[in-house]
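Sharing a chain and its predicted structure for anyone who wants a worked example. Both blocks are below, sequence first, tokens second.
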Amino acid sequence: MSSLLIFIGLLLVLLVLRVPIFISLAMSAMGLGVIKFDDPYLAFVVQKMFSGADNLTLMAIPLFMLTGDLMNNGGMSKRLIDFSNCCVGWIRGGLGFVTVMTCCFLAAILGSSSACAAIVAAILIPAMVKRGYDLEFAGALTAASGGIGPIIPPSATALIYAVAASQSVKELFIAGYVPGVMIAAGFMLYTYYVARKKGYPAEPKPTVKSFFTALKSAIIPLMLPIIIMGGIVSGIFTATESAVVAVLYCVFVSVFLYKEIKVKDLPKSLMNSAKMSCIVLAVMTTANFLGYIMTLSQIPQATTAAITSFTESPIVFLLMINVILIFAGMFLDAACAIVILVPVLLPAALALGVDPVFFGVMMTVNLMIGVLTPPVGLNLYVVSSISDINILRLSKAVLPFIFIMIVVLLIMVFFPQTVTFLL
């Protein structure tokens, strides 16, 4: 365990000094290597970092990010919001329901919590405030609903876990549906309770004609998640190939069908996606070297021995891990937490008979709490900057949604078949 403490100490010092996360990971791993071993081990740094990025599955991450950019700029997101309004807007607190439902639709395509929150916040928060909703509630609901993104497939977080843990992307995607739906249902129930308590209005009921008009407008973007998951589940194409199909579909729809993006604007979307992808891929390169040093240091073996000597109950173990993950999510984003913690915690989970796919989905759900908690709390900062909401008041308003996510986590821990029965 001394090796793990050395690594954590080095990493925390570098993060406090505001060193970029991927450099912090690499320097911490190198520091651990120098302390524990001779210099020749460090000759593998570049080789291991290169092999960390040399993975076909990781190619899906920039492609799904490009899909999200094309959807937003190509008018597909607006059509999904209009359709969601026709479906659930007529319920009391209807715009809150629309927010959750829209995030579920976008989640099935974007796989990014911050992108989902940003798109919905810009459109629906002003609309909710205009209809009498409290600004803090509207912001908190949007920030929390954005966190559904990486849970419902396709998910960049699931892809990163699949690479780090050598698990099936297809199974991780399928297993994410039930927790995502449970969280969305919890958010809707709480929204209805608040709407009844504070008198938030319902939107006018759509006519049959307006409903089918909205459905006709949204059918093309609604087909995208069906194509993606249908192709993956049926085995027609892999997760990476599905990302290529998604990009081509969005380009065709946005440029040639809706004509809301010009061909000359495509390089800008490509550049935006490349910049966002570099952050994730830089972390993945250093994570591979980190895993190599951890294995040589026998950190996973020592952690497994320590945990199994403390408890042999999978439920007690998972409860302990959830506490660790909630704390880690307050300071690290999901990608960084996964690449750091999976090599340490997964061997112990396997030793106690925990399903690795279930473990990955549980980690994803848990770490989405991190996007709602300072000091990292990315969704809080995104919504705060877009809607000019005080970050402290927003952090307080989001607490009920965090509680709902914790309840879903507990259900998963005590009833893991809720995640695995679809596999």
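Comments welcome. The chain has one domain: 2-420.
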